[in-house]
Every structure is written in C-alpha cells, then in structure tokens.
Amino acid sequence: MSSSRTSLWGGRFAGGPAEALARLSVCVQFDWRLAPYDLAASRAHARVLAGAGLLDADELGRMLAALDDLEAACAAGEFRPTVDDEDVHTALERGLLERLGTLGGKLRAGRSRNDQVATDLRLYLRDHVRGMATNLVQLADALIEQAERHVDTPVPGMTHLQHAQPVTFGHWLLAHVQPLLRDLERLRDWDTRAAISPLGAGALAGSSLPLDPAAVAKELGFVAPAANSMDAVADRDFVAELLFVASLLGVHLSRLGEEVVLWTSQEFGWVELDDAFATGSSIMPQKKNADIAELTRGKAGRLIGDLVSVLTMLKGLPLTYNRDMQEDKEPAFDAVDTLELVLPALAGMISTMTVRVDRMVAAAPAGYTLATEVADWLVRKGIPFREAHEVTGRLVALCVARECALDEVSDGDLELVSPHLDPSVRDVLSVRSALAARTTPGSTGPGPVADQLASAVDKLDGWREWATEHVVPR
Ligand code: ARG
Question: Which GO terms describe its molecular function (predicted)?
Fold first, then answer.
C-alpha cells in the first residue's frame, strides 16, 4: 500500500491492508453512483457543524465551495475514484482533502460511514423511485390508450388458459392497469417510510457534538430524523421493502409479457408488434419475435433474486452495522436499472402494437364461451342453477358431438336436451348481448368498462405530479 493512499482509518494499524482484503473490501466500483447524494449530505453536515460552532463562517464557506467544486468535477468526470479508494466516502474525502488540505479533515466530525451510507442510499432510492413511477405511469398510459381503442372489441376471456367467457380487450388491458396503480401506491407508501434521515446517528450511538439531525433531515428532503441511532444504521427495511415492491411489479410486468408472447403467437394471432419493438431470427427469415415481452418475463427472476439476496444477507445480522450490509447496494441498483430498461421498452411495445380485431371477434364465441349465458337464461326462468348447469352441459355435449355452435342447434334438439329450453334462448347467444348484459360495477359490459376507464385515467392523472416531484435537493 502506498503511503499517499487516502484511508478513513489506519491510525491503530501497523501496516496497510493485504491485497486480498483490499480487493474483497472495495466497493467504489459500484457505490460511486452515490457520490452526488453523499455530497448533498456533506453540505448539510457542514452547515450543522458550523451551527455547532465547529466550523467558522470562513471555513464553512470554503468547505461548501470545495464540495460544489468537487461535485462539478465528479459530474464532468474530472474527479474519479481510484483503485485505492475503498468506497465512495473515501474517494470524496480524498477529493475534499485535495481541495482544502487539513480543513477537509474537519467534515468527518460527528458522522460515520455507517450513518452516511444509510443516508446516501435512502436519498438515491427516493430519487430514483420517482423515475420508476414516471415510467410506470407511461406504461399505464400506453395500456389505457389501447384499452380506449378496444372498449368494445370482444375476446374470449380465459381461466386455465381455456376459453371461458367473452370479455372486451379493453377490459382485459385495464386488468393490467389495476396492478400498476397498486404498484404506484406501494411506491408512495414505501417513500413515506423511507423519508427518515439516519444522519446524526454516527457509528451507532449518536454524537457528543451539538449536531442538529432535524436540520440535516430537513435540508435533505427527509420528513424526520431517525428515532433511534442504532436502528438508523442497522435498518435496511427500505432496501428490502423497495425490492419487494420492484419484484411484485416485475411479476405484474412478466404476466403481461407472457400474454403478449401468447397474443403474438401464430395460434392466437391477436396482436402484431411494430417492427421497431420486435426482433428477427438469424436463420429463419420469417420470424418476428416478442423479445421485449420475453426479456420482461426473464427480468422478473432477477428482481426476485435481488430481493432474496438482501433478505438473506440481513436475516442473521446482529445490531447494528455489519459489513455484510455493503451487499445491499448492488441488488438495489440492479432493480432500479432493470426497471429503467424494462418499463420504457414495454410501454413502447404496447403503445405501438396492432390489434387484430377480426381474429378476436372470431375467437370470442369459440369454445362455447356463451354457455354460461344459457345457464343464466334458465336461472332467470326460475330453474335452480344446479339444474341449469346440467342442462347447459348436455347442450354443450350435443354441440361438441355435432361440431356446431350453441345457436346452431335446431328447435327440436333444444327441446330434446331439456323441455326448459326453447328457441328464444338464442337471444342470449351472441357475444354482443353477453357483453351488454354485464352491467354490474367492475364487469366487462360497456357501461362498467367506461366507468373503469374514466376512473383509471383519473387515478393515473393523480400520480403524474408525485411521479415527477424532486424529493432530493441538489
Ligand atoms: N462501504 C460501506 C457500506 O457500503 C460503508 C460503510 C462502512 N462502514 C464500516 N464501518 N466499515 O456498507
């Protein structure tokens, strides 16, 4: 180890760290992205040190100017971490010492990397969650736009991937919007718990210096300082919780992706992807693949992996800080990065896809999706549902044997299946009438879907401001 190396510790050590330790320990290659947040926290801390009389006005001025200069140098790529910088905090202290000499060494009073790193990561995640929300809103916009176009395009709704009952494609697409609206709520709920400032906790016990954790919290956009200094540095709930929200979001996107894969298959033929959002094959010239949908499905596995690795890392840790916790950052960053890639691609794919209405209309009644209409028709005539189900089942069996549709059964055969059946049952045997009959809130009829659409648009509009708000002062 060279003696010019900046280290935040070393006084009690006889020599420098072994190469193998340094290589294991270093994390600046992935925590460097915390630099702007670390600098923001440093500015707040400098002001608090001045308030405590530990920096005079001149020193504070020079400190803040140096921090600004360092921030600009970082942004311009002129100041970079070196292999000797253990982490982002070490690198930035080196930058400060280069600019201020011994004055730079005053900033570390009353704080520790333990409260610093917890603060930086909260700031980073709170900042990026708004971007995630913005991308989510855009995906929901794309789904809503398509839903508006297809409020009365019938499709066979499915259970067990078998044709079940007709629904509209608009209703189906809106069924993918609802989970995204819940994801937005989860992000906001997460943010209310993440908006707590660990700074002031020091290593774990707080500080003997007259710091002002509330002022630091306020300056950094937090709602309040942590209630317990030990919890402040030991807590990584905000990482695990966000990774859960990201995983669940990933699962929602994956289920949508899976459906797009199905819809674009030859067998369904319901959707055609825009060329810009599909890929080809290196050997089969005819191929058009839904890679965005597949990558979305695949990335869900990564997001879940990120969550599992952080929970597993945390589960046996005694209070307070342990170095294991350095392993929280890569999964957290990976989840943010993954969603930053997936969400815009998915939104583009959805908003540009062409829906094959003809194929959907043809598929809607296939597989006897109107059988329930017959059973309900019988129920309206006073037949117990149990018997109505039986009768309709026999009618379906007859149609299967005859290879005909429900409304193609002759008057005589209807009578033969059950004396309760008569030709007027054909009134309910159209997809359109089946859809129109569904008037209860939340169902697939035109009225309830229009209501749902309006409310989804309304709710989404309510998120736009939150999603673009700047929570972290720069
Ligand atoms: N790089 C460390 C981390 O990410 C910073 C905190 C180091 N604290 C310590 N006591 N060694 O967790």
Answer: argininosuccinate lyase activity
Q: Are 156 and 164 contacting, i.e. CB atoms less than 8 angstroms apart?
A: yes
The answer to whether 398 and 417 have CB atoms below 8 angstroms apart is: yes
Query: Which one of 34, 117, 124, 313 would you pick to mutate in the ligand 1 pocket, going by the greatest count of ligand atoms within 8 A of its CB?
Result: 117
* DSSP character string of 29-77: HHHGGGHHHHHHHHHHHHHHHHHTTSS-HHHHHHHHHHHHHHHHHHHTT
The domain made up of 371-429 has a fold known as: Ribonucleotide Reductase Protein R1; domain 1 (1.10.40)
Phi and psi at residue 155, to the nearest 5°? -140, 155
**Residue whose entry in the numeric block shows the structure tokens 């009690």:** 12
Residue 12's pLDDT is: 80
Q: How far apart are CA 209 and CA 216, in angstroms?
A: 14
Percent of the chain with pLDDT over 90: 93
Contacts for 75 with CB less than 8 Å, ≥ 6 apart = 36
Look up 281 and say whether it is catalytic.
yes
323 lines ligand 1 (CB under 6 A): yes
CATH fold of the domain at 21-109: Fumarase C; Chain B, domain 1 (1.10.275)
175 burial level (CB within 10 Å; 0-12, 13-18, 19+): middle
d(CA 308, CA 300): 12
Per annotation, catalytic residue among 2, 3, 4, 160: 160
| 325 within ligand 1 shell (Cβ under 6 A) | yes
The 10s digit of each residue's pLDDT in 344-371 is 999 999 999 999 999 999 999 999 999 9
- Structurally, at CATH architecture level, domain 126-151+164-193+222-363+453-467 sits in Up-down Bundle (1.20)
The reply to whether 252 belongs to the active site is: no
Beta-bridge partners for 158: 163
Establish whether residue 259 lines the binding site of ligand 1, counting it when its CB lies within 6 angstroms of any ligand atom: no
Residue 2 has pLDDT above 50, yes or no: no
Q: Which residue has its alpha carbon closest to ligand 1 atom 3?
A: 326
Q: How far is the CA of 115 from the centre of ligand 1 (A)?
A: 9
Residue recorded with tokens 């900046």: 6
Contact 137, 467 (CB under 8 A): yes
The one catalytic residue among 281, 410, 424, 455:
281
Q: Do domains 126-151+164-193+222-363+453-467 and 371-429 have the same CATH topology?
A: no
Q: Give residue 131 CA to ligand 1 midpoint distance, Å.
A: 27
DSSP letter at 422?
Answer: -
Contact of 263 with 271, CB cutoff 8 Å: yes
Instruction: Say how far residue 131 (Cα) sits from the centre of its chain.
Output: 10
Domain range summary for the chain, segments of one domain joined by + = 21-109, 126-151+164-193+222-363+453-467, 371-429
Q: Are 95 and 82 in contact (CB under 8 A)?
A: no
